[in-house]
Design brief:
32% helix, globular, 11 helices, alpha+beta, 17 strands
Length: 477
């Protein structure tokens, strides 16, 4: 029987819902109580969230998840820490977890070396075949253990700022409204895969043929270029012909850190999601550039129809899985078994906050106004009207300038950074008839003007100076 992880006893963040399952051989999902995630709050009102996607077994992922929580929570950030110190704490946590993983398997690594040495010695021995089979069987078992690992995304909220760290293809998405009350989704993490040009450049600098890797879409025994664990493609990478020529370990555990991102009233909800979830959407709908938008739209639609916030993640996963299985059946495809999927949603103010006592009556004070039983109820509390938000998100690509800015400086509230995006990613469909919109409650105002975001004052000042100096070109009036 598997021991219950200590992370299950962490104080849970009440405004978070999570769902997880493992797909079985027949393609049907199984309920999974062995969540590879945590979502907790600390005594100083900081919050820590993590999603871990297992690779080649579950033991290493359990170890990585529990050790990561310990590394961060046993020495939590304090109010005196600077932004860079908090970023460094997250970075060091990943380094420490990777080191602890290798130390945990030291005995197994030593046994593997000893068995390989024995194989060389028994060559030509009378009973060599039988002995070799026994050794090879044990080596296979060891390699299976050593190949276990996880991709990870961590989100830390401290002093009303958000910090995100990740390795692999697990993602963090932030859904927030712009000045026009349109909900937009921003990918805060970078996918560490063979589709990432920066990662391919790193691999080419190690002496690898990136064209072959891109075509194979495999780096040793995995698709990602970064992870925690999986010692086989790290310390033992020479055993894989496709990466044996690298000058150093091609798969690394170094995380990318993003933030701090200031959390203000425009931030509606945060999503941490394993690659198995959004890759199902990509498989069915095809357009990888719109996957984040499509996932966020499914979440918003389930916010609207699900009475119990705690069940939103589960209903979202069920909808995605049902659509995926229907697609596979229609196209005579066999779903890959044992795919572990996890979806964590942290509500900021898209829905009313869940009170400390979830058993409160349905009549309570909100904004100094009495709320009556006749209003909609969610988790035994009235549901706030969210009609002031329209849903028509923009997908920020991993190469977008916004992500780079987040990595080096705070995200200032009220800025127009969300508008500074490549035109190819802008959804210009702002029609009020759009079925994906949550329509604004304010009456339509024909004369309403969008707030200006380009300052022409410098231009007009220079025109006036040139006019006074008599140097103004004749075509400018």
């Amino acid at each position: 029987m598997i021991a219950r992880p200590w992370t299950d006893d962490l104080p849970k963040c009440r405004n978070t819902c999570v769902a997880s399952y493992i797909s079985q051989v027949d393609g049907n999902p199984s309920s999974n109580d062995d969540y590879f995630c945590f979502y907790c709050h600390t005594e100083d009102n900081s919050c820590l969230y993590g999603v871990f996607e297992p690779h080649n077994g579950l033991d290493a992922a359990r170890f990585i998840m529990q050790r990561m929580a310990a590394e961060i929570l046993f020495a939590p950030p304090s109010n005196s820490n600077t932004d860079e110190e908090i970023r460094e704490k997250l970075r060091n946590a990943f380094v420490s977890v990777e080191k602890a993983y290798i130390e945990n398997y030291d005995g197994m690594i030593a046994e593997r070396t000893s068995l390989q040495y024995k194989l060389q010695i028994i060559k030509g021995h009378t009973h060599a075949t039988q002995m070799s089979d026994t050794i090879l069987y044990r080596l296979k078992e060891i390699d299976q253990h050593l190949s276990g690992g996880a991709t990870v995304v961590i989100a830390l909220i401290h002093n009303n700022k958000l910090y995100v760290a990740n390795v692999g293809e697990t993602r963090a998405l932030l859904c927030r409204t712009d000045d026009n009350s349109v909900l937009r989704v921003v990918q805060l993490t970078v996918d560490h895969s063979l589709n990432n040009e920066d990662e391919l450049l790193r691999l080419s600098q190690l002496g690898l043929d990136v064209n072959k890797l891109r075509n194979a879409q495999y780096l040793g025994n995995q698709t990602g270029t970064r992870c925690l664990g999986n010692y086989l493609v790290k310390g033992l990478y020479k055993a894989f012909p496709s990466i044996s020529g690298a000058s150093s370990e091609p798969v690394v555990a170094a995380p990318e850190i993003h933030g701090p991102i200031a959390l203000d009233e425009s931030c509606r909800f945060l999503v941490l999601v394993s690659a198995g979830v959004y890759k199902r959407i990509q498989e069915v709908r095809g357009n990888s550039e719109q996957t984040n938008k499509q996932l966020s739209q499914i979440i918003v639609e389930n916010f609207r129809k699900q009475n119990d916030f705690k069940k939103v993640s589960q209903s979202v996963l069920e909808e995605i899985e049902n659509e995926f299985l229907s697609y596979c059946l229609k196209n005579s495809l066999t779903p890959k078994p044992n795919t572990h999927v996890t979806l964590l949603i942290r509500n900021f103010n898209f829905l009313p906050p869940i009170p400390q006592n979830e058993n409160t009556n349905t009549v309570y004070k909100q904004n100094n106004q009495s709320v009556r039983n006749s209003e909609p109820v969610r988790n035994n509390q009235p549901v706030r009207n969210n009609q002031s938000v329209r849903f028509n998100p923009i997908v920020q690509s991993k190469s977008n300038t916004l992500v780079n800015e987040m990595d080096s400086e705070p995200y200032s509230s009220g800025s127009n950074d969300l508008e500074r995006t490549n035109d190819s990613h802008v959804d210009t469909n702002r029609s009020i008839e759009s079925s994906s919109d949550i329509y604004p409650s304010r009456p339509y105002d024909r004369d309403r003007r969008i707030k200006g975001y380009v300052d022409f004052s410098c231009y007009y000042d220079n025109v006036e100076k040139a006019r006074k100096n008599g140097t103004l070109p004749s075509f400018i009036k």
